[in-house]
Amino acid sequence: MNKNLKFLTVSLAAFVIGFSVNNFAMSDVPSNFKVAVVDVPLVVSSSTQVKNLKKEQEAKTQELVKYVENARKNIAASSDEKKKKDLEAKYSKELQARKEKMEKEYVAKLSAIDASISKTVNAQAKAGGYNLVLAKNVVLHGGEDITQAVIKAVK
C-alpha cells in the first residue's frame, strides 16, 4: 500500500511537471533562470519521519495480528455454534473498525509528512534562488541537484 501510494504520488507529480515543462520550454526563459532537481524517493526514504511512521505501522500491525490470534482462540474455545457465530461477527466487526482507524491515521500522518517535505523543498529552493524545482526522475539533463540539502533539512 505504502509503495503504491508513493508510486502514484510520484507518477502524478511527474505527469503534471512534464506537462508544465512542455509549456515552459516553449516560453522565453530569462538568462538567470535557475532550475534544481530533487530525488524525491531518496528524500522520502531518508526521512526520519517516514522511518518512524513505518516502525509505528509495523507495531500496529503486530497488535492486529495478536488481536486476531486472541479472537481465534476465543472462538475455538466456545462450544456453542451460535456463540461461535456471534463471536466471529463481533471480532470481524471490531477488526474492520481497527483496520479502518489504522488506515485513516496512516494516511493523515503520511499527508503531513508529504506536506513537510514539500515545504522543505520550497524553503531550499527559495534559499538557493531557484525558479523551478523538478523531480529528478523526470529530468533527462540539467538542473542542479539539491537532494542532499533537502535530506539534511528534512532529518
Characterization of this structure:
This protein is mostly helical. It has a single domain, classed as Protein Binding, DinI Protein, Chain A. Helix content is 75%, strand content 6%. It is built from 5 helices and 3 strands. The chain has a 3-stranded parallel β-sheet with strand order 2-1-3. Helix 2 packs parallel to helix 5, helix 3 packs antiparallel against helix 4 and helix 4 crosses helix 5. The model has no long low-confidence stretch (mean pLDDT 83).
TL;DR of this structure?
The protein has a single domain (2-154), classed as Protein Binding, DinI Protein, Chain A, CATH 3.30.910. It has helices at 2-25, 40-46, 48-77, 81-128, 147-154; strands at residues 35-38, 132-135, 144-145.
Tags for this model:
mainly alpha; Protein Binding, DinI Protein, Chain A; 6% strand; 155 residues; three-stranded parallel sheet
Low-confidence stretches: none
Oligomer: single chain
Q: Level of helix content?
A: over 70%
> Which strand order do you get reading across the main beta sheet?
2-1-3
Classified in CATH, the superfamily is Skp domain
Radius of gyration: 23 Å
Tell me the CATH architecture: 2-Layer Sandwich
Q: What's the rounded overall pLDDT mean?
A: 83
**Secondary-structure-derived class:** mainly alpha
CATH topology grouping: Protein Binding, DinI Protein, Chain A
Number of strands: 3
What letter string, H or E per element, gives the SSE order? HEHHHEEH
Shape verdict: elongated
Straight-line distance between termini: 24 Å
- Measured by DSSP, the beta-strand proportion falls in 5-15%
Separate helix tally: 5
Q: How many strands, which pairing sense, and closed or not: the largest β-sheet? A: 3 strands, parallel
The CATH class name reads: Alpha Beta
Number of domains: 1
